[in-house]
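note to self: dont lose this again. the chain is below, predicted strucutre after it. 356 aa total, dont forget to put it in the shared folder this time
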Amino acid sequence: MLRITCMLMLFTVAPALAQDYTVVAVSHTDNKVSEVDPLTGETLREFVVPGEWFGETHEGAISPDGGTMYVSVPYKKQVIILDLDTFAPRGVIESEYFSRPSHVRGFARIGRRESSSSDPHGVALNNDGSKLYITVQNAQVPGVVVYDVEAGTLKKIDTVIAGNYLWVHPRTDKLYFPTRDDRVVVIDTKTDRIVNVIRLHAGSRPNGVDFGGPNDEVWINGDGDGSITVIDSSTDEVISVIQPRVSGAGRVAVSPDGRLAAATQGVEVSIIDTRTKEILASLRMSPLDTTLLWPFTEESGHGFPMFSPDSNHLHVLSEYSGDMVTFDMRTMSQVGGRTPVGGASFGGGVRVFEQR
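---
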């Protein structure tokens, strides 16, 4: 069922950190994970997945203590366990759940070769870091694989409906799993049972989730119409739908202080007051003149937003241009230059350190 093996690695080390957090970015087309100092724009360390180019390093989940990152590699049918202190892999998670039966046609994303992978894709940890949840949207029966971090065992929750990504609420420990058909599956991570299925409006195509605001709401972006749906985390009922001035695929993030939400639509970022649910600003990332590895246009490439721990800055990874843009939330303006992080960077997280 499960096999964890040691791996070789390629990495570089740069000088010590300039502040108490870093951004860890996952690059799809470069098959690498980069740790970046967002103050200086300096790449501190890199890990390159060894082997074939088709691995497509995809999503990452950072442990509560900031010491480990779980990185999905769909085409290699693996999740890498990356030690963030050394930037060396401690092993990989491999399972029969990450493969499709031989008689079932595989998937081929963005025109690449067909694979028998079930597409281990989205990754999320529960709040104490004891369980890792992994989506397998192209399994014969789509669902979520649960990896027990301490025991090293796996099991699968069959959701039947498919989706890419998933997140766990920091207060309730409920997992929210957006699916392709305008629904959100809710799983209790204590029992690993489906406890609710939330129906969103037609055409929303929910894809990204974050949590926060005055009542710890659930914020969900819609890849279909660019909408942001807000859900009561206690009742799992929709309480608001916010429509930005443009549509486009992206993600959503809520600031640690709970005041702001940032939703990306292509290269535009909508900044929302979480209390009033009003859009305060529409910020735009001006694209680079670059040769693209993937056939994205300026408007179709996703943006991956992440707030700084003090909520003063918003860092957005651009799938379109393969870099990171930083906005100052006090002035609602872009600051500094663009920081290269790798081709089609659309995944990762903020790694927080104890104040030194």
